[in-house]
Amino acid sequence: MDLTLFGLTDIVLSLKATSLANFFAMLISFSFVMVLFLAPKYVLTKSFYALLTLLTASLFLIVYSNDYLLFFIGWEVMSITTYFLLSFTLSKEALHKYIIFAMASALSLFIAILMLYSTNHSFLYADAHESFMLLTDVNSILFVVLMLFAIFIKLGTIGFHYWLVDAYEESQNLFTPFLSAVVSKMGVYALIIFVVNITQPAYVLAVMGVLTSIIATFKAIQEDNAKRLLAYSSIAQLGYIVTVLGVADGLGGALYHSLIHTAVKLLLFINVAGIIYVTGRSKFSELGGLIYRMPQSFVLLLIGIIALAGMPPLGGFASKFMIYTSLLDAKYLLILSAVMFSSASAFIYVYKLIYGIYLGHPSNKKLESVKEVPLSFLLPQYIVAIVLVVIGTFPALVVPYFNKILEELNLTAIPFTDTATLMTPYAQYNGFVVIGAFGATFVLVLLLFVSLRSKAKEAKDRFDIAYCGEEPNEGTHLHYGFGMGKELKRVGFISVILKNSSSYFYDFLAKQISALSQMTRKIYSGKLSLNFNIAIVFLIILLWWSLK
Amino acid sequence: MIVIDLFLMLLVAYAVGFLYYGLYRNITARFQRRFGPPVWQSFIDSVKFFFKEESTSHGWMFYLGPIIMMSGAIMTLFFIPFFSSGDSFSGLSAYGNLFLVLYLLVLGPLGNALGVGTAGNPFGVMGVTRGLTRLFAMELPFYIAVIAIMSLSGSADIATIASGQTTFNAFAYPLLFIGALFSFIGMMGQAPFDVVGAPVEVYSGPASEFSGKFLALLMSQSAIFTFAKLVLMVHLFLGGASGFLELLLKTFVLFILVISFGSLYGRFKTPQSVDFLLKVPTTIAVVGLILATWS
Amino acid sequence: MEHNGFLQEQKTLEGDLNSDTSHKSSVDFLMNWFRKRSIFVLAYGTGCGAIEMPPTFTSRYDAERLGIRGAATPRQADVIIVSGYCSYKTLRRIIRTYEQMSNPKYLLALGSCTVNGGMYWDSYNTIKKLEDYLPVDMYVNGCMPRPESILEGFIALQKEIGEGKASSWQKYEENYEFYRKNQEAVLGEKVEPSYDADWYLYDGGL
Description:
Strand order of the largest sheet of chain C: 3-4-5
Order of helices and strands of chain B: HHEHHHHHHHHHH
Helix content of chain C: 40-55%
Structural class of chain C: alpha/beta
Oligomer: heterotrimer
Strand content of chain B: under 5%
Radius of gyration of chain B: 19 Å
Number of domains of chain C: 1
Number of strands of chain C: 5
Structural class of chain B: mainly alpha
Number of helices of chain B: 12
Distance between the termini of chain B: 44 Å
């Protein structure tokens, strides 16, 4: 659908329902519905829901637009509505951080778009490659830097993530799943459009993605707050997508990982929202031992964690498998080792999440009398968990849809034989066999185990643990594991990551800009005589230049 | 029939795993100038625990923890073929690949970690956190070596990698083998990387709260898992095997090499082992990868 | 329960080494055979007799050839060795540890102090006869017994286990009130240890 803006036939705007747009639109609507399940339990004003709907509309505008101007309009509306939605609960400092970064991202995006327009007088995606080719060398590098700067801020790539963690931590518990699952995917969409239509800066994307996933994973291990840990985990997972988009045939892996990441973050954030709703706490040092009060939440978080870590029976492994084989195919071997390294390090914070909340011992007396979360929290989690299990069992179920997207973009399709086998040029695996064998083995071992001679006797109470002959009591501090990861500060290579923070750089930058503006402020002092002198000097220079 | 095939693989892994553990105690004893227990002692230990009158349990998640661990070990075994060609004793390897096996190696310890966390014994949790911290550092040199081998063989299928070696990978790419060997020492639970289950220092770590039949299941899965890991290393670096005798010989030689290291060296602390593993074996493996794939 | 001084444990040590064996059933025979061949000893030295345990379990006297090895936690152990005197403070921990071990469990009493108080027969702070507080399977007397004696004690214990006669854990369960009464008489109403390091200030004394 083509429009013209105020009758200016120069600027053609258009919307187009490509398969890629349909895929992202499906993710957006699914997340929107899941998040609304939580609405009955939170008392929020009508303006909140109006803003949320406006945000979703702007997201649809972003994915369905076929040219950069409508894309930019959607991007701006998204940033501003997110600002207002965050302003309900964020502290002033966190809110300022968000708006400065959002405005920087929007500004550099706009400059990049105008650079494209300046050569070819068209905003359409189809003409973007030509416009890019017509730029001079210096300008094309500038264009790529600006565009990547804008996209990396939205994606939360390391170095540009300064706003993201505080925003996720302090935002409304109903809004954080939506933020993490979908709004960050707009950055992914922008990057896909950039890579497919314009150019693919391969090494830059791969190295930035790998740095992001490694650094964010180690920062996640140190966190004590559940929401901050999940925020850093979000950054790390998006880093995988950035890495695989730096590879020639990586689009399939990127799409698959977007799907899995959306589902997993919905599940995890809604689970944590339920915990905060019931207990009022979100720090691991204040939680613990909730497994027997909330068994359903525990099992659902377990499914989310298995998918997040990329373990075989569930869907997370399928997306990681596609990412790895794409990298292997392109011979990015060291990059692949670094990605697998960060994926192995993810096991620590994944275990810390489930241990700090559900396992161990309760940190205070009130936790021993909580009830299970209400149904409005459990229902979206069950739906997402079923989706993850189904994708894990039939990993090639979504491959025909991805092939439609890939064919529209003139890329090579993923090979496909049956819905249970996920195939790539290097290797294949059959998800149904994996989960079937695991289930059968588990049931057989369980039956054999139960029928053994020795009976399982329940421990007398939670203090009946082997504690070196001593007996702990109520006052003994037994919930230990929440501090895991602290000893990593003593390892040389990792302490470099942990001791430094991007806040040092941004504080330095802010101080320098503040000092600079202090100097220039002196020009606009209150004295009339100074202003009059400056105006006369300026007029003289203007006259002299115009007379040249 | 595939079910008979799987059952026989399980039986062989169980028997040979326990035999190797008994031999390990004997050989370590000879290093220490004494005679050790009889060769079948580990098997007797595990069966004795099955015959305990009662075992203490801490709830349903604690009960299921060792079962998940055992299922994980059995699954890893099923996806690794015993021989580099042919249909017998190939298990389910036609439906999986090397990436799947690398991730299945972590499934068992995750189940163990869940069971240990439920019991809530602080010493158990300390052991689990040590294990997870050591895990990522230990896997890095191994991943680098495995990725190099996958790229050189052009496939991620274990049987193809094993049968495609004209000279053993251990001799053709020695730096890769040395880097992976450091990780493998840690994977087998040998010094200097065995801080996880330090018996008296951290109250035996993850095994601290398991008694009776739970402990028996832990020991059995340990035997099966050890054999699966040995067979994987043989296929990756020692050219696979085409018969039982060759398989047993190669796994035994690798096993002796690993436990010799274990009985001679002391134990690194957790930050020390992470530091070492991220520096020395990683550098060796990266240099090996660059040399192997540059041309 | 009365005893006749050293003659009692002398009988338990010598009397059974040559006797005939009789079993209840073949399943019991199998179980006892496995239990006898693999003994995990809790790594817990309760008194000065513990100095003789390390040489027994390491290279010089090598108890591992009999299938005996150390275990870290009471959950994994079969045998607890009460080596030497038992002060009241230690007795609390020994009782808690003994109750955390899983059945079948055996108690090996090392040294003369467990028989009749030994060197500390007139101390205000130790117990004089272990049999009153915890059921004992095998005594090994001496002050302290050398590793050879300990090994002989273990072999006798293995023989008893093999015949199904080492059933002190059943005796503890059946006569629990008797043992508990004796423990409370000397330790106070709260037999379990208090975790606090200044237990003697808050607990009301020894």
